[in-house]
Amino acid sequence: MSSPDAAVDTQQVCKLLDDMKSSMVSARETIQSLKEKGPSYLETKDGISLLSLKHQVLLSYLQSLLLVSTRRAIGHSLSSRDRPIEPFSNPERSARGTDLGDMVDHMIEGRVVLEKVKVLEGRMRYQIEKLVKASQQKEKSDASDVINDPLAFRPNPHNLLDANDDEEAEEGLTRDSTNTDGIYHPPRVAPMPYVPQTSAKTKRQQRAPIPTSLASVLHADGSMPHVESTSGLGNTPSLNHTSSRAKYLKHLSEFEEDQFGRVMMSKKDARRRVRDEEALALGGGLSGLGEEGKGGGRRRGGAGGWEDEFGDVLRDVGRGSSHSLGGDGYEELRQRGKRGGVLERSRENKKRGSDSLVIDGEVPQKRKKSRFETERKGIKSKR
Amino acid sequence: MADSAPVTLRTRKFITNRLLARRQFVLDVLHPSRPNVSKEELSEKLAAMYKTDKKRVVTFGFRTAFGGGRSTGFALIYDDEESQKKFEPKYRLVRSGLATKVEKPSRKLRKERKNRSKKFRGTQKIKGADAAKKGK
After folding, report:
1. What φ, ψ does residue A60 adopt, rounded to 5°?
2. Do B67 and A281 count as a contact with CB atoms less than 8 A apart?
3. CB within 8 Å of A92: residues ≥ 6 apart
4. Quick one: where's region Disordered (chain A) (predicted)?
C-alpha cells in the first residue's frame, strides 16, 4: 500500500465511523423519547390507529422484500413454505415460518392490507385534512382570525334548546293572563295559501332533474376501475343503462339464466322486448314506461343513441333549409297572388253568400250552382 | 351438410343436478356467418364434447342476440333414459322422439261434449252425447 492511498483510506474510514456514531446518537435520542412517553403511547388495547398501521405494514413489507431478494441471490427456492396448521380464517392462527415462500405470503398480505387502508383513508381524507389544517392554523394565526379557522362555525345545538324553552315560557305566561275567561282562542298563525299536491307526477316534475353531466357520478364507484364504452359515445344517460326499461331487460335476462328457462310472455311483450333489445344493442336511447326521452315520447330518437348524442347538431343542420321554399324570402308574397285551392274558395263563398259575385284572382265569375242548391231552391218554390 | 363456418360452443353456469340426474348449463353458441344453428346439430356437438348419447342431450330456449352471430340458450344432459322420461316435460320428450303426442279433440269440443252429457244419466250418457252431436 502506498502512503497517499493509505491516507485516503483512513480518512474515509474515519468519516464513515463518524457518520455511524452520529446516526446511532440520533436513534438513541428517539428511543429515549419513546421510553419517556411511556407504555400508554404504545398501548394497543383499542387497536392500532389506521395511520400508524400504514407505517408498520410498509416497514415489514420492505423488510420481507429485502430478505426475499437476498435469499434468492443466495439460491433459496421461492416455493419453500412452513405453513401453520390452522386455516387462514382462524383468528388464533400461529405465526408463519421464516422460509422464502412465507416471506412472499407476508408481502402479499401486506400489499392487500395497504390497498384496503388506502381506500379507507380516501373516505376519511376530508376529516384528516380538516384536522391537519386546524392544527397548522393554531400555530400560525391569532385568535382573532376566526374566518380562517375551519372549526369556528360549527353548529351549536344548545342554542336551539334555549330558544324553545323561552318560547314555551312566554306562551304560558300570555295564556295565563288572557285565557282566564274559558273561551277557546285558536292560535295565531300567519295565513299561508293552500297548494294541493295533484299527483306523484307533479312531485317528480317539481324536483329538479339531475344534470346529465353529473348523472354518471351517482353510479361511479371509486374502487372499481374506469370503464370505457366500446361505441365511443360519451356519458349520455341512455348509455349508462339508467332507464328503467334497460334495467328491467337486464334483470330479465339474468333471471332467465338463473331460472334455467325462458319467461312466458305475450306476443306483444315479446315483440316489444326484441325491439328494445335491438335499440339497446345499437347504443341505447330507451325510455321507460313513465319516463320521457330527451325529446319527449318513445320513438323520436331513432336507432340507438343517435339523437341523444348528436341531437343539437342535427337540429342546427335542418334549420336553414326549412325556412322558405324558394330560398329568397319572397315566397310568401308569391303565394299570396295565387288562387287558393277548392277548400279555401268554398270557405270564402260561405262567408259572402252563395249568389254574390266572387272575385277570385283577376276575373270575377258567377259562381256555379251545384245540384244540391238548385234542388233546394226548387223545394222552396214548390211550396 | 358441411359447415360453412366453425361453430363455437361455450357453456356457462354449469351445474350437476343430482336430484334430477342431469347436468344443466347455459349454452352460448357463436355462429359468425350462419343464421342459426339447429337444435339437432347442437345436441350432436354436445354429445361429442361430453361423450354421451346424442339422445340424452336436450337443448331449448335459444334466442339470437341482435346483429346475429351469437345465440344463447339452455341445455341438459341426462344420465340415462329412464330419468329423462321421468323428469322431462311431455313436449320436450315429443321433440326428441321419446314419446308420442296424444291427439285429443279440441278443448272446446271436449267441453261441449261434457256439457251435453250432463243432461243424461248412466249409460245413456255415451249414447246421448253422440246422438246430439250427430243431430246437430
Report:
1. -65, -35
2. yes
3. A86
4. 137-193, 284-383
Task: Identify the pLDDT of residue A293.
Answer: 43
Residue numbers in A near B14 (CB within 8 A): none
**Closest residue in chain A to residue B61, using alpha carbons only:** A262
Cβ burial of A254 (10 Å; 0-12, 13-18, 19+) is: exposed
* Neighbour tally for B71: CB within 10 Å: 19
Nearest residue of chain A to residue B75 (CA atoms): A260
Average of per-residue pLDDT values in chain A: 75
Tell me what the mean pLDDT of segment A13-30 comes to.
Answer: 93
CA angle A68, A71, A73 (to 5 degrees): 105
Among candidates A257, A274, A282 on the partner chain, residue whose Cβ is nearest the Cβ of B13: A257
* H-run or E-run covering A162: helix A157-178
pLDDT one-digit tens code per residue, A240-279: 566 778 888 889 999 999 999 999 999 999 999 998 888 7
**Rounded Cα–Cα distance for residues A232 and B51 (Å):** 44
pTM of this prediction exceeds 0.80:
no
What's the pLDDT tens digit per position in B2-12?
Answer: 556 789 999 99
Give the whole-angstrom CA distance, residue A309 versus residue A282: 13
pLDDT value at B104 more than 90: yes
pLDDT tens digit sequence for B54-86 = 999 999 999 998 878 899 999 999 999 999 999
Beta strands A364-365 and A358-359, pairing class: antiparallel
A259 has a chain B CB within 8 A of its CB: no
A331 and chain B in contact, CB less than 8 A? no
Identity of the residue numbered A215? A
Helix (H) or strand (E) holding A74: helix A50-74
| A355/A290: higher pLDDT | A355
A298, pLDDT greater than 60: no
CB contact under 8 A, A262 and B61: yes
- Residue A216: exposed, middle, or buried by beta-carbon count in 10 A (0-12, 13-18, 19+)? middle
Q: Which three cell numbers stand for residue A327?
A: 330560398
The partner residues of B76 in beta bridges, in order of sequence, read B24, B58
